[in-house]
Design a protein that fits this description.
This is Sphingomyelin phosphodiesterase. The protein is of the alpha/beta class. The protein has two domains: about 190 residues, no CATH class; about 375 residues, Purple Acid Phosphatase, chain A, domain 2. About 40% of the residues lie in helices and about 10% in strands. A six-stranded mixed β-sheet has the order 3-2-1-10-11-12. Strands 4-5-6-7-9-8 form a six-stranded mixed β-sheet. A hairpin with a 6-residue loop joins β10 and β11. The longest helix is centred in the N-terminal third of the chain and has 20 residues. It is globular and about 75 Å long.
């Protein structure tokens, strides 16, 4: 360290020496000198703001991290206190939501920031994910080692025999505290709870019906209604896939006992109404939400894996227990056919999981990718077909580019063995296509389809589930049909939800292809789904129908121009680095932040109810990129803590 730098750091006291560590960071020399001068002059917030205005956004974010480190070094309590104050000042949520959420996830954020090397790829990843101020770093190269070469035989042809029925539902988000008649309009992430006296049944001016509301999570009655509908509509279902997320969106008020009971209750209902159910771990199953650390960092999610193991082993057997309790994943053989189901813990690749922002994080958390390769290779040698299920789709913007890239290599290698992949998380009805060459995204290079199931919770559309027709020997998907409970039906809140068919893929899309694909025995291949995206590109009417079906006809918005281009890119992105998502400053900020300065003192705000996994802490971080007053407050609090040290 140069003598001048030593003097300036000593002048800053313990905050700079212990937390900022500029000289030992990966920052360029010029940035180090600028930050040191700004800290000494107590003008770092001004410099950060000027950098943002002058488009030097990644440099600006490193400056924000300097300030955040200056808070985090004083301990979790100090960090939680300051972050809670900033959350309230930003008005990204009500005060109690700020207190609860930041109190839960703040210590994890503080730990990540304390250990973060300024200027490193980890810091840039953090800045891109939560502030929209850095592009995502290049994917670290890792060529996955495979124990055997890919066979030349290709995918087996469908048998032509009578199809089986496979059910999928996702993102049920049950709210056991839902109260019929309570207010369906509120300032919280979810409503239909009597938060105040004015929200009580009989007093609310917007009373919720007994069976659900678009601004609320799922009442138990709606959940049971879906299970009953599945039993009635698909009495001969061979198996059911549940792609995760049980716990409601009141993420400021969760606890380990609360989540454990939610998990137990949901799977108990499933076992009462359905046959074999294969589940996967959603990001909401943990407490705090999204918090799934690799074992090399912490074992704090062990209770989640234990709770899931207690429920899943009734269907997957005791032999899978050790895998579930170790990494929250499993591989099991379907007892009535030549099918293996592999459930992945996609939370290890989820950018909202603060535990993953550690320096030197392993490229394969808990060895799950190597385990997956081993399971797929054994399945291939045994001639088994495989379904891969997980919560988060691997091509979504929520997926780290690196983890998605590595898993995509595995999918390409075993594309002849994997019959299909199934995910949830997005709450909407869509799909993704994986390719052998993402520079040539066409039908000839399409290798795998991911089926992304719409949610039961009505926050993003009508309550839904899917039924797949599958070949009984190859387990290839032959058709997919979505069923909904139409909330505009007059019977929905009176005699109860009425579940009806919304559409099927072959009827809606296959019939319009050239040549048409309507034969009941023909597989919906990855090439089929690519051709559907080409149909969307050339036929606006069909694309608009798809957009309407995404939300199951609810709150349908126009999607043209850049919106359509982005949507097509997302559908053709089984790998997240190819989804055309570009971070924007203040990424993930709630829509209600628009015009916030004009209404700073108003506590009557509308809420964007289409978020999943977003938290008050994340929104507060995003606010730092667009609110100069928050930067000033952050710098003031850092200086106050330093003065007391």
């Amino acid at each position: 360290m140069r003598p001048s730098s030593t003097l300036s750091l000593l002048a800053l006291g313990s905050i700079a020496q212990a937390a900022v560590s500029l000289e030992n960071s990966s920052l360029p020399r010029r940035d180090i000198e600028n930050f040191e001068r700004a800290i000494e002059a107590r003008s770092l917030a001004d410099d950060i703001w000027n950098d943002i205005k002058n488009a030097a956004t990644c440099t600006a974010c490193q400056g924000i991290l300097v300030l955040l480190k200056g808070i985090a070094v004083f301990g979790d309590g100090a960090f939680v206190s300051v972050a809670t104050e900033l959350c309230k000042l930003a008005k990204v949520e009500d005060d109690d939501v700020c207190e609860g959420t930041v109190g839960l996830e703040g210590p994890i954020i503080a730990d990540a920031i304390r250990n973060m090397d300024l200027g490193s790829d980890t810091s840039k990843l953090f800045c891109g994910s939560f502030l929209g101020l850095c592009p995502e770093p290049s994917v670290p190269q890792w060529k996955i080692p495979f124990p055997s070469p890919k066979p030349q035989t290709g995918r087996p042809a469908p048998s032509g025999k009578t199809p089986l029925k496979v059910v999928q539902y996702s993102d049920i988000h049950i709210d056991p505290l839902y109260v019929s008649g309570s207010s369906s309009n509120c300032t919280k992430p979810i409503c239909c709870r009597p938060y105040t006296a004015a929200d009580e049944p009989g007093k609310s001016i917007s009373p919720a019906g007994p069976n659900g509301d678009h601004k609320c999570d799922t009442p138990v009655g709606l959940e049971v209604s879906m299970y009953q509908a599945i039993k009635n509509i698909v009495p001969d279902a061979a198996l059911t896939l549940f792609t995760g997320d049980i716990v409601d969106h009141a993420i400021w008020n969760t606890s380990q006992p609360y989540n454990q009971k939610q998990i137990s209750d949901a799977y108990t209902y499933m076992s009462q109404y359905l046959g074999i159910v294969y589940g996967t771990a959603g990001n909401h199953e943990s407490n705090p939400t999204n918090a799934f650390p690799p074992r090399s960092i912490s074992n704090s999610s062990q209770w989640v894996y234990d709770a899931l193991s207690d429920q899943w082993t009734r269907w997957v057997g005791a032999s899978a227990e050790s895998e579930i309790e170790s990494i929250g994943a499993y591989s099991t053989k379907y007892p009535n056919g030549n099918l293996r189901v592999i459930s992945l813990n996609t939370n290890f690749y989820y950018r909202m999981n603060f535990w993953l922002y550690q320096e030197g994080i392993e490229q394969d958390p808990d060895g799950q990718i190597q385990w997956l390769v081993s399971e797929l290779d054994a399945a291939e040698k045994a001639g088994e077909r495989v379904y891969i299920i997980g919560h988060m789709p691997l091509g979504e913007g929520d997926a780290f580019h690196a983890g998605s890239n590595y898993l995509d290599q595995v999918v390409n290698r075993y594309s002849s063995t994997i019959a299909a992949m199934f995910f949830g998380h997005t709450h909407v009805d869509h799909f993704e296509v994986s390719y052998s060459d993402y520079n040539s995204r066409d039908a000839s290079h399409a290798v795998m389809a991911s089926y992304i199931c719409p949610s039961l919770t009505p926050t993003s559309g009508m309550p839904s589930f899917r039924v797949y027709d599958v070949d009984p020997e190859t387990f290839a998907v032959l058709d997919t049909t979505t069923y909904i409970a139409d909330m505009t039906n007059a019977d929905f809140q009176t005699t109860g939800p009425v579940w009806t068919k919304l559409y099927s893929a072959k009827e809606t899309y296959g019939s319009k292809l050239n040549p048409p694909v309507t034969d009941a025995s023909v597989e919906l291949t990855a090439a089929f789904w690519h051709n559907v995206t080409a149909l969307f590109e050339s036929n606006s009417d069909v694309f608009n129908e798809y957009i309407s079906l995404k939300s199951r006809g609810w709150n349908v918005a126009s999607c043209t121009g850049d919106c359509k281009t982005q949507e097509l890119c997302q559908l053709r992105a089984g790998r997240s680095e190819n989804n055309c998502v570009v971070p924007s400053i203040g990424l993930h900020l709630n829509k209600r932040s628009d015009g916030l300065h004009e209404h700073e003192h108003s506590h009557h705000r509308s809420h964007d109810h289409q978020e999943c996994g977003m938290s008050a802490g994340m929104k507060t971080l995003g606010s730092l990129a667009v609110r100069k007053d928050l930067l000033d407050e952050l710098e003031t609090r850092a200086n106050e803590l330093k003065a007391k040290a």
